[in-house]
Amino acid sequence: MSKAVVLNDKLEKSGEIELPESFQGINPHNQYLYIKSYQAALRANSANTKTRAEVSGGGKKPWRQKGRGGARAGSTRSPIWVGGGVAHGPKANRNYNQKVNKKQKKLALMFAINEKAENGKLFVVDSVSIESGKTKDAANFLKGIDARDALVVKELIDEKTYLAFRNLQNAYLVEQNELNGYTAAAFDAIVIEKSVFEALTKEV
Question: Residues near 98 by Cβ (< 8 Å), separated by ≥ 6?
Fold first, then answer.
């Protein structure tokens, strides 16, 4: 069984909590589909090319239709001309959204949480609160965790805690409703409040 590490106020290990059996044996393809959908939705969708109808100029026929011994030409803005329009080029009206149902979203999050627990990178604390609002205090808060970077999950973010974490490069603070399969998988470790952890495991 996968277990989350329980930390006390000094961020020292004080126990372990087992994850429910429903977190075990989830097909990783659910996570793949969710992350693929999440990243597709982030695309700027700003690519745009002009067709021959949209390029300025080209109103006059460049030369007469017959008698020159060359090919016919009706406009200098044809796609075969330099400076002409683009045939079948990218447009900004493309929809990149990929549908993922609610069950798959849930399974993707559960898989990511279980993976962190299996690697000993899921930490449960009573509360995440930096009352001073200072970045150095937030950095000290995460010092006891042996991880490259950490996702910090708080039930409701207060202003002081937000100010303390916002400039840390190796930490990202989110509220309970922002936790998903992508953010959970993107970081090396997860530090989660006990109330959020209980709500998360109770839902399944």
Answer: 33, 36, 37, 40, 41
Interatomic CA distance for residues 185 and 190, integer angstroms:
9
Cβ contact 9:124 at 8 Å? no
Residue 176 CA to residue 203 CA, distance in Å, equals 13
Its pTM stands at 0.81
CB atoms within 10 A of CB 86: 14
Chain segment 94-118, per-residue pLDDT in tens? 889 999 999 999 999 999 999 999 9
As a whole number of angstroms, the distance between CA 123 and CA 36 comes to: 27
Residue type present at position 166: R
Contact present, 192 and 126 (Cβ < 8 Å)? no
Tokens representing 130 are: 């930096």
Q: Which domain holds residue 80?
A: 46-95
C-alpha to C-alpha distance for 147 and 168, rounded to whole angstroms:
14
Q: State the DSSP code for 76.
A: T
The owner of tokens 């603070």 is 173
Q: Are residues 24 and 113 in the same domain?
A: yes
pLDDT tens for each residue of 184-199: 999 999 999 999 999 9
Specify the amino acid at residue 152: V
Tokens describing residue 58: 């080209």
Residue 186 sits in the same domain as residue 170 = yes
**Residue of 40, 8, 11, 26 lying closest to 118 (CA atoms):** 26
